[in-house]
Design a protein that fits this description.
Radius of gyration of chain A: 24 Å
CATH architecture of the largest domain in chain A: Orthogonal Bundle
CATH class of the largest domain in chain A: Mainly Alpha
Strand content of chain A: under 5%
Shape of chain B: globular
Structural class of chain A: mainly alpha
Oligomer: heterodimer
CATH superfamily of chain B: MetI-like
Largest sheet of chain A: none
Number of helices of chain B: 14
CATH class of chain B: Mainly Alpha
Strand content of chain B: under 5%
Order of helices and strands of chain A: HHHHHHHHHHHH
Chain lengths: 319, 296
């Protein structure tokens, strides 16, 4: 087991290096020249004029160096906890991200909790009552969750609350540790929308794996022995159905990162996702680069964690 | 019945067979058939938009800003007085076009990579696999966002970005089927006959990977249409004034939607239906085409 963990940890390294290269290259795909774009974005210099200003800016940003040197400078900085300065605010990128990250983590955790809290029991009930009206109703709900775009659901929820309850989107965001109650009132709605969409996926998967496991011989034996249904479901069936569900939950975490971008935009929450969109619109590319890298890295790490959890959950897996 | 069809000309019997196949499919997979019907309807809307749309989707009408649904404007108008019904119909064009093109380009690219890697193995396969792994490490929308941010937002850039996002998945699916097919006796036989690698790959292995490829591709179209809508919703997809369902729901619209809730309904319903259609068609195709599931 120890050897496996070490091997798995090492295997992540090339992926992470690849991720940094992709992020770096994508940001250099910009047709033309970032410096020129930034200057043009200021609306001051036209297309040709300010060559001197452009050269100064290029030097400032390190864009005059050869590509591989730019890459190593960037990575070197990252390893020392320096992702450069935001072109928009002029402050260190990591400070800006650090201020916004707790909200996004809160939103993602709350959404996953809601998704598992609804999806697991719903899938289990649907499987146990296969082909009853409960099953059909739950499946109908999960079809809705799968097909309705989260950004539409979020918009509808928002409109619904504004029109019917005179709710107004709060102007200032309240951090959780300042006032947990106020904070939850702001975060719960987007979390519910994201949670519902994900619950649909989890319920579907839970239902089908549960149905599979319920047909196994050992479950029939356990039932014949006269075990109560609760014991049967929890210790015999659920544990064995858990692996694919967990894998899915990890994949869903990646979608969750997509979702936070959208939810934070709709519900005007100052998290990482919204910051990413703002940074893209402002061409604040050190920020864009850092956030995308961070999202990809956290996605890789969550998958790693799930792989390692397999060994704990499934006694048949011995590395 | 069979005798009668057999006596007809070849083309006719093929037609009867196709019709019967579709009919059997509809009976066995009602949801899949419903999906097919929805896709067909939106497909017709997309192709026939210039003739089917009641009004010009770009026509600004200061006399009818935020007009509620009425016989003249079936689904109401938006903040510029543009007819929402016509914009929905033209929006089907954008959604379907982007969805199909991105999946066609991305899946083909991925399939070729998977085919070549899976067949050749060795260093080539290793390199392709590493690239696939790295691309799969990105959350889909985030990678697309990054690429559109770099390339600038235009319909073709959105298609390219989504294609790159889709390719690794197709590569993975095709590669894994190539790996099993490569070991089958008929491939061995073809190799012993001295056929070229290219011929074996494209004439003997490729046709056997088509089913999993079609399943992944169909299921991918729904997600891709959603991604395009999400990008447009965020203001980074199809640029205005081109009608796109995602952009019609975008955040700048929220202030108008309180006054004119019909603006929020139609594009969302259209999107939901199309995504629903492709997902159910994909599911049904998987059940029908996957030999492992066919028995049940």
């Amino acid at each position: 087991m120890g050897a496996y963990i070490v091997r798995r940890l090492i295997s992540v390294i090339p992926t992470l290096i690849g991720v940094t290269i992709v992020v770096f290259l994508v940001m250099r795909l910009l047709p033309g020249d970032v410096a020129g774009m930034i200057l043009a974005g200021d609306g001051e210099s036209g297309s040709s004029g300010n060559m001197e200003a452009r050269e100064t800016l290029r030097e400032q940003l390190g864009l005059n160096l050869p590509l591989h040197e730019q890459y190593f400078t960037w990575i070197g900085g990252l390893l020392q906890g320096d992702a450069g300065l935001s072109l928009w605010s002029g402050r260190p990128v990591l400070d800006e991200i650090g201020r916004r990250i707790p909200l996004t983590i809160e939103l993602a955790l709350l959404s996953i909790a809601i998704a598992m809290g609804i999806g697991l029991p719903a899938g289990m009930i649907a499987a146990l009552k296969q082909d009853s009206w409960v099953d059909y109703a739950l499946r109908g709900l999960s079809i809705g969750g799968l097909a309705m775009p989260p950004f539409w659901l979020g918009t509808l929820l928002m409109l619904f609350m504004v029109v019917w309850f005179n709710w107004t989107p709060p102007l200032g965001f309240v951090p959780f540790f300042t006032n947990p109650w106020m904070n939850l009132q702001q975060v719960i709605w987007p979390a519910l929308v994201l949670g519902y969409a994900t619950a649909a996926v989890i319920a579907r998967m839970t239902r089908s794996t549960m149905l599979e496991v319920l047909r196994e011989d050992y479950v029939r034996t356990a039932r014949a022995k006269g075990l109560p249904t609760t014991t049967l479901v929890i210790t015999h069936t659920l544990r064995n159905a858990m692996l694919p569900i967990l894998t899915l939950a990890a994949i869903e975490f990646g979608f969750m990162l997509n979702g936070t971008v959208i939810m934070e935009t709709i519900f005007t929450l100052p998290g990482i996702g919204r910051y990413l969109i703002d940074a893209i619109l402002h061409r604040d590319y050190p920020v864009v680069q850092a956030i995308i890298l961070m999202m990809a890295v956290s996605f890789v790490l969550v998958n790693l964690l799930v792989d390692l959890l397999y060994g704990v959950l499934d006694p048949r897996i011995r590395y | 019945m069979t005798d009668a069809t057999a006596s007809h000309s070849d083309a006719e019997s093929r037609l009867t067979r196709t019709v019967r196949a579709i009919f059997t499919f509809a009976l066995r997979k009602p949801l899949g058939a419903a999906g097919l019907v929805i896709i067909a309807i939106f497909g017709v809307l997309a192709i026939g938009a210039p003739w089917l749309a009641p009004l010009d989707p770009f026509q600004i009408n200061p006399g009818a800003l935020l007009a509620p649904p009425s016989p003249q404007y079936w689904l109401g108008t938006d903040e510029f007085g543009r007819d929402i019904m016509s914009r929905i119909i033209w929006g089907a064009r954008v959604s379907m076009f982007v969805g199909l093109m991105a999946v066609a380009i991305g899946s083909t690219l991925g399939a070729v990579l998977g085919l070549v890697g899976g067949y050749l193995g060795g260093v080539v396969d290793d390199i392709i696999q590493r690239i696939v792994e790295v691309l799969l490490a990105f959350p889909m929308l985030v990678l697309a966002l990054a690429m559109v941010a770099a390339l600038g937002s235009s319909t073709w850039n959105v298609i390219m970005a989504l294609a790159v996002v889709l390719a690794p998945n197709a590569a993975r699916v095709v590669r894994s089927s190539v790996l099993t097919i490569r070991e089958r006796p008929f491939v061995e036989a073809a190799r012993n006959m001295g056929l070229s690698d290219r011929r074996i790959l494209f004439r003997h292995i490729l046709p056997n990977c088509v089913a999993p490829f079609i399943i992944t591709a169909t299921a991918g179209i729904g997600t891709t249409i959603l991604s395009e809508a999400s990008l447009s919703f965020l203001g980074l997809g199809t640029p205005p004034p081109t009608p796109s369902w995602g952009a019609m729901l975008s955040n700048n619209m929220h202030s108008y939607m309180v006054e004119a809730p019909w603006m929020a309904l139609a594009p969302g319903i259209a999107l939901t239906l199309v995504v629903f259609g492709f997902n159910f068609l994909g599911d049904a195709l998987r059940d029908v085409l996957d030999p492992k599931l066919r028995a049940g």
